[in-house]
Inverse folding.
């Protein structure tokens, strides 16, 4: 039991915040999620030079963080308090479902509070970001569970497919899609629902893309229910993998 990791809650270093904003604004199709919380930052597209863009983003982040300083500090504690109540039970249950022990060399998972609500995770050092001001505690618990699920899930994946290049664990590879589909499915498992008590969400694209009449999210959720009591997680994963390889996402 002592091998379970612990989560540390911290404010995201400003250099990382800047870099993530820039990447989401200029190198991804996720910018709409930034505008939702930060409409004024859309003005950055009027700026031509890279240097001035970075300055604009930096100033925006600094001002925003100054104004919301108290909430950020307060929620670092709030999140930690809410998480500590379920940490042990969640990590134990997750290990049972994925059928793997937590690795001994990963004692700390860092959760960085960010003013950006897109929450990237980093498999190489087991860190992730989470939005600093969710209206509901269950929302942040869902994000934390989701990201931690990825960390343990890929440990299992590496055991089953040891030769696979880890670049396939990231977007846009099908292995990455599978990890994003399976995370909410695991959180919706009844054993986790006893702890989370909130239905976990899928990315919109998995709700909107259809296989026959069903969405991908519904299709794989049903497949999970059909498999989970009958076979090992490894077997289930191989079935999922075979299936998703034949789908165009
Ligand atoms: Zn994810």
């Amino acid at each position: 039991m002592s091998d379970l990791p612990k989560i540390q809650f911290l404010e995201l270093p400003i250099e990382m915040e800047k870099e993530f904003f820039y990447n989401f604004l200029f190198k991804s199709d996720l910018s709409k999620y930034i505008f939702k919380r930060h409409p004024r930052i859309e003005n950055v597209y009027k700026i031509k030079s890279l240097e001035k863009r970075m300055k604009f983003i930096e100033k925006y982040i600094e001002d925003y963080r100054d104004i919301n300083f108290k909430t950020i500090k307060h929620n670092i504690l709030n999140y930690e308090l809410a998480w500590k109540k379920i940490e042990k039970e969640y990590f134990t249950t997750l290990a049972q479902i994925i059928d793997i022990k937590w690795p001994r060399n990963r004692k700390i998972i860092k959760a960085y509070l960010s003013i950006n609500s897109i929450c990237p995770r980093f498999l190489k050092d087991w860190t992730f970001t989470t939005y600093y001001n969710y209206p509901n505690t269950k929302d942040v618990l869902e994000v934390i569970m989701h990201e931690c699920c990825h960390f343990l899930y890929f440990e299992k994946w590496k055991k089953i497919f040891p030769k696979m290049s880890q670049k396939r664990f990231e977007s846009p590879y099908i292995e990455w899609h599978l990890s994003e589909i399976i995370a909410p499915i695991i959180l919706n498992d009844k054993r986790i629902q006893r702890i989370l008590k909130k239905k976990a969400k899928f990315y919109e694209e998995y709700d909107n893309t259809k296989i026959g009449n069903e969405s991908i999210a519904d299709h794989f959720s049903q497949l999970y229910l059909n498999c989970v009591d009958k076979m090992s997680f490894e077997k289930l994963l191989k079935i999922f993998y075979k299936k998703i390889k034949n789908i165009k996402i």
In short: The beta strands are 6-11, 108-114, 121-122, 127-131, 210-211, 214-215. The chain has two domains: 6-132, 153-245.
